[in-house]
């Protein structure tokens, strides 16, 4: 699968075709975050217009935290930032897909590589994803 | 990456650990749909409790259409159904990841394989995904 580097930097201009329709979505759009190398889905979070702009300005993914109601620079305190490698938009301009290099190897606050670390199987629910760090030991 | 077949069939019991918290999410949760073979993200849509149950009962992905406000058996009219291969849930139990075999090869109503068919690059927005069918010719 071809991957393209996403241009980043201060003052970057986003073509209209890739601008999310924040107004239609009530200000927040869902963002799927995928590991740029393995294509594993790491998490789903949300961006508002400010988080979207900060992500492209800095090259590190910013979300809008719905629980804290504030801009969320992912990994700012832990150092586990997400370096932006690619950005795609869906047909309705109301969802984004970002591809990242996940510093530290874990996207989830639980210490698992992916927030989607539980799978349904014939034997019940299993942990399908490695634990990278112990959050209690931080 | 290990993949696990998701059990399906009438009367399937979902373990509590994999049950989405529909109430917390206002009845609808976002669902990321990923190609089971290539891991390409095909689309993002929503499920309510009925769509979730129907998906597991039938082994074909059902969503809740927010625009039509009705249960949406993906591919019911076109034949482009999504065969369920895996199901994962996130750490907050408010997002799902399904892995599917996409019948017909295209998940998007535009005819592209993925709804995320546009990527931001140094040269502007490009189409990063093949067109599988011409929707005007249907």
Description:
- The structure is a homodimer of 138-residue chains.
- The first copy, chain A, has a four-stranded mixed sheet with strand order 2-1-6-5, with helices on one face. A two-stranded antiparallel sheet of chain A has the order 3-4.
- The mean pLDDT of chain A is 94.
- Chain A is mostly beta strands and 138 residues long.
- The first copy, chain A, starts with 28 loop residues before the first strand and ends in an 11-residue tail after the last strand.
- In chain A, 7% of the residues lie in helices and 33% in strands.
- The first copy, chain A, is built from one helix and eight strands, in the order E-E-H-E-E-E-E-E-E.
- Chain A has one helix spanning 49-58, and strands spanning 29-35, 41-47, 62-65, 70-73, 82-89, 96-102, 118-121, 124-127.
- The interface between A and B is large, with 44 and 44 residues.
- Strand 7 of chain A pairs antiparallel with strand 5 (82-89) of chain B.
The secondary-structure class of chain A comes to: mainly beta
In helices, the fraction of residues of chain A equals under 10%
What string, H for helix and E for strand, traces the elements of chain A in order? EEHEEEEEE
Count of alpha/pi helices of chain A: 1
Largest interface: A-B, 44 and 44 residues
Principal-axes geometry of chain A comes out as globular
The proportion of residues in beta strands of chain A is 25-35%
C-alpha Rg of chain A (nearest Å)? 15 Å
Question: What is the makeup of the main sheet of chain A?
Answer: 4 strands, mixed
Counted beta strands of chain A = 8
**Which oligomerization state do the chains in this entry correspond to?**
homodimer
Order of neighbouring strands in the sheet with most strands of chain A: 2-1-6-5
Mean pLDDT reading of chain A = 94
Alpha carbon gap, first and last residue of chain A? 37 Å
Outline the low-pLDDT stretches of chain A.
none
